[in-house]
Amino acid sequence: MSGAFVEPLVVNDRIAIPQSELEESFIRSSGPGGQNVNKVASAVQLRFNVLTSASLTDWAREMLLRGGRLTNDGVLVITAQRFREQERNRADARARLVAIVAAAAKPRVQRRPTKVPRASKKKRLDTKKHRAEIKRGRTRPD
Questions:
Q1: Looking at the DSSP assignment, which residues form a beta bridge with residue 136?
Q2: What ranges do the domains of the chain cover?
Q3: d(CA 130, CA 126)
Q4: pTM for the full predicted model
Q5: Helices (H), the chain
């Protein structure tokens, strides 16, 4: 690993993922690459163990575990191969990790059930009566 990413990945004011919790491996990318397509490992596979991470809040850990994007061992694997350069794929994988953890860390807003207003109920019933009257008027008199 190069010294370019020494500082932790900051997700929000409560979560910062240190480099020691991230594991990167470089693999060959599918897609365009010209002559180097079979020689250069430009794709990045970023692994983050959700179960053992000390940097996650309990809420974020639970949401990530519920999310269904983890391996059986509780590891979140992100493969980035959008770009031809390894560094750009590396930055892309880290940005995607930050986005996933940030989405999991965001508290869900509790929905407050509301009542249907009386005027809306009356308007709906009046409209139904009006439609029924129109259809009744289409029949032949006996």
A1: none
A2: 3-105
A3: 6
A4: 0.66
A5: 58-67, 86-105, 118-136
